[in-house]
Amino acid sequence: MPGNQSISAIAAVFLCLLLSCTGETPQPVQLRAAPDTLSVDAARTMIVDMGFYDFHKHKAGKGIIHQYQLTADGLAVIDATTGLMWMRSGSKIHIPHAQAANMIDYLNQERFAGHSNWRLP
Predict the structure, then answer these.
(1) What is the Cα–Cα distance from 18 to 88, expressed in whole angstroms?
(2) For the stretch 102-114, what's the b/e string if a residue is b when 16 or more beta carbons lie within 10 angstroms of its beta carbon?
(3) Lowest-pLDDT range, 3-7, 18-22, 96-100, 108-112?
(4) 3-state secondary structure of 58
(5) Taking burial as the number of CB atoms within 10 A of a residue's CB, which of 51, 85, 93, 95 is the most buried?
(6) φ, ψ (nearest 5 deg) of residue 44
(7) Distance from C-alpha of 90 to C-alpha of 14, rounded to nearest angstrom
(8) In the chain, beta strands by DSSP E
(9) 75, 88 contact by CB (below 8 A)
(10) DSSP code at position 109
């Protein structure tokens, strides 16, 4: 069936992206650790200098080749390229942004996934 072929092609492309089929060796990317307010020009410069893709500002950008890995306990995902880590599942309940700081404090106190430096992106 044609529909199944389309789904298979989409799945193959997605799998290819997951496996970094570009053949390029991922280079570490150093992102800033603290929030910052940028002007439009400074943001555009950063996008170009870092090689990020943006439909309007930098179509030639290749972006980042991520290297996702699960932590040994399976609770978090680490991107070896950027050094960033995320909760694998997120929270089980909706947490309003105003209360998210309390959740972050809790994760840090409990050393969720063995870490005590959780923060909001």
Answers:
(1) 16
(2) ebbeebeeeebbe
(3) 3-7
(4) strand
(5) 85
(6) -60, -45
(7) 22
(8) 68-70, 76-79, 85-87
(9) yes
(10) H
